[in-house]
Amino acid sequence: MKGPVKTYMSGDPVSISPGASALEAFEAMLDRGIRHLPVIDGSGHVVGVLSIDDVRAALPYPVSLRQPLAPTQRDAALELRVGEIMTHDPETLGEDATLAEAAECMAARRIGCVPIVDEHGELAGLLSETDVLWAVATAGGAHRSANAPPGALESLVAELTRERERVRARLARRLAEEQSLEAQTREEPMDQAERGADVTLVAESIALDELAVKRLAALDQALDRAARGELTVCARCNGPIAIPRLRALPGATTCIACARAQALRCAPCAVAPATAQSRALLAARRSARSSASHLGSLS
Fold first, then answer.
1. Which range, of 74-88, 169-183, 255-269, averages the lowest pLDDT?
2. 257 pLDDT band (50/70/90 cuts)?
3. Fewer beta carbons below 10 Å: N end or C end of the chain?
4. Whole-angstrom Cα distance, residue 224 to residue 201?
5. Do 129 and 212 fall within a single domain?
6. Looking at residue 270, what is its pLDDT?
7. Angle formed at CA 211 by CA 218 and CA 221, multiple of 5 degrees
8. 54 located within any domain
9. 72 - beta bridge partners?
10. Number of H helices, E strands in the chain
11. Whether residue 49 is found in the same domain as residue 130
12. What's the structural domain count of the chain?
């Protein structure tokens, strides 16, 4: 397959911020019929990728792009941040990369898309597996590699290890940038406009860093469990934890079935206080009516 990826990619793709809710991300996918969202920071740089599989694996109920979430399901999706379940610091390619390079990257990493960035590192497009298939179809075919892909578990562990190193490196760069900025600010005081713009960028960076730290902790936990041979074993039922769930939530220790069962068990707990409150209110109203009737009979 020849030609640069910019020939085949989807230009100006729908994107989302890491601080957005999983509900907002899902509704963006649902409205536009897409399966992947590049995640960008305030400067337009790619900081992650979120797939419908990530959303589906993270939420404790079935998720489909064919129908919206039920009202009772929206709260959980609203509380979950994109930065908590996305793949941080994903693989990216430049606009001049070849389609063959992109296809090889996607096959080797077992990923469904690759964000394409311009010379400034800002999002320029998104190349999905569907785009690659269309390119293959129009080209009349393609050759398969003779090398068999690694097993799903081994591939996942390698993928999580690479992501952990990327997140660690980015956090280290961010720390160095903050220290450099502090030193520069001491040497060259900024005016009010510059200070305001700088504060906004710092606030965005801090929010993203907090999500990255949480993701890093989950990656560390996942790789520790992998070293013990427990990564795909549910801590509740000893059944298997699906690979997509671990990719979205590396720190998950229960399978999706146990997570859903736990969510259902907790649902009555949230309703109980309201029910008790309603009963108390009805009892108070009956008492008030009874007192009013008694006073009326006395008069």
1. 255-269
2. confident
3. C
4. 34
5. no
6. 43
7. 10
8. yes
9. none
10. 10, 7
11. yes
12. 2
